[in-house]
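Students often ask why inverse folding is considered easier than folding. One informal answer: many sequences map to the same fold, so there is more than one right answer. In these notes we will look at a single instance of the problem. The structure comes first.
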C-alpha cells in the first residue's frame, strides 16, 4: 500500500507519519495493512496542491492507494485578509487532490473543520446538520468539502476541531509559554468546542484507510469546554503558577468571527469503525506529560 500525505510536516501530518512508523498510537494498534505502507510525505516545498497540473503529475508518478490531505491555510484571521490564498489552498487544493485521486483510483481522506458551522446552536453537531460558516476560513473549507464530493467517489471527509499536536504551533504551546512568561492570562469564555489531540485524530484516520465506510465524519476529543476551560486545564496540568481570567469575544476584536458553539458529535465514527477518541482532559494530560 502507498499512502500520500499532504501537509506532512504539520501537526497532523507529523503524527500520522510517527504512528505508522511506530505501528501504534497512544490509543492502540493500527491496521496491519497500514503498518507496512510506503509513505510519501510532501509539503509545499515538494508539492504545491494549488497547482492542478503539478498535483496530477505527482499523483500519477507514484500512484498512491490513499491520499490524506492534511494541508490547509488555517490562520483564521489572516484568511479574512488573504481571501485568494485561502481559496487556493483550502478549496482548489482539495479539488485538485480529489480530481487526481479519482484518476488513479485512490481513496481520499480530506481533513476539514468545525468552522464549517455557524455556531448558533446549543447541541453537539452531527454530520447531517446544516452548515453555515461565518468566516472566510470556514467558507473556503466548506467549498473544499463540496469539491471533494463532486470529484471523488471514494472519500472520507473528516472534520475536527481545536487541534493540537507535538509538532508546530498550537493553543496548548501558546498558553504554556504565555503562562510562564506573564503569570496571568485572559482567555475567551463564550466559545465552546472540543479540544482534539492530533494523536487521536491520526489514529482514527488510519483506522478508516482499509475500509469502504465512505462519507463525512466528525472526529474530536470527547467532551466540550470553552477556550477558558481549556486554558485552565493546560496551566493546571503543566503545573504553572498562573492566574487565568475569562473574557468575552468582543473584548478581543479579532478580524474573523468564530462560531460561538461548534461542539461536534462523532456519530459516524460510533456507527462505523468505532469511536475511541479519548476524553479531552485525558488526552491533554498525556500530551503535556510527554512534552514536559
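Output (designed amino acids):
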Amino acid at each position: 500500500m502507498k499512502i500520500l500525505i499532504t501537509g506532512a510536516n504539520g501537526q497532523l501530518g507529523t503524527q500520522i507519519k510517527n504512528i505508522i512508523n511506530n505501528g501504534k498510537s497512544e490509543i492502540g494498534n493500527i491496521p496491519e495493512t497500514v503498518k507496512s505502507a510506503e509513505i510519501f510525505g510532501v509539503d509545499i516545498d515538494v508539492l504545491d496542491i494549488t497547482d492542478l497540473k503539478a498535483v496530477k503529475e505527482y499523483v500519477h508518478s507514484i500512484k498512491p492507494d490513499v491520499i490524506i490531505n492534511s494541508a490547509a491555510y488555517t490562520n483564521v484571521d489572516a484568511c479574512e485578509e488573504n481571501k485568494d490564498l485561502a481559496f487556493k489552498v483550502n478549496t482548489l487544493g482539495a479539488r485538485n487532490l480529489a480530481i487526481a485521486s479519482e484518476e488513479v483510483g485512490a481513496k481520499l481522506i480530506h481533513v476539514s473543520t468545525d468552522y464549517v458551522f455557524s455556531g448558533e446552536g446549543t447541541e453537539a453537531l452531527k454530520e447531517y446538520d446544516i452548515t453555515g460558516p461565518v468566516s472566510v476560513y470556514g467558507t473556503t473549507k466548506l467549498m473544499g468539502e463540496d469539491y471533494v464530493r463532486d470529484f471523488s467517489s471514494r472519500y472520507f471527509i473528516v472534520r475536527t476541531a481545536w487541534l493540537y499536536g507535538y509538532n508546530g504551533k498550537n493553543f496548548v504551546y501558546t498558553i504554556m509559554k504565555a503562562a510562564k512568561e506573564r503569570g496571568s492570562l485572559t482567555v475567551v469564555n463564550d466559545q465552546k468546542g472540543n479540544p482534539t489531540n492530533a494523536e487521536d485524530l491520526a489514529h482514527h484516520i488510519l483506522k478508516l484507510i482499509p475500509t469502504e465506510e465512505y462519507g463525512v465524519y466528525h472526529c474530536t476529543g470527547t467532551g466540550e469546554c470553552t477556550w477558558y476551560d481549556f486554558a485552565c486545564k493546560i496551566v493546571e496540568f503543566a503545573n504553572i503558577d498562573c492566574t487565568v481570567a475569562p473574557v468575552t469575544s468582543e473584548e478581543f476584536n479579532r478580524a474573523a468571527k468564530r462560531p460561538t458553539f461548534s461542539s461536534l458529535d462523532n456519530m459516524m465514527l460510533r456507527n462505523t469503525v468505532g469511536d475511541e477518541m479519548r476524553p479531552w482532559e485525558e488526552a491533554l494530560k498525556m500530551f503535556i506529560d510527554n512534552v514536559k
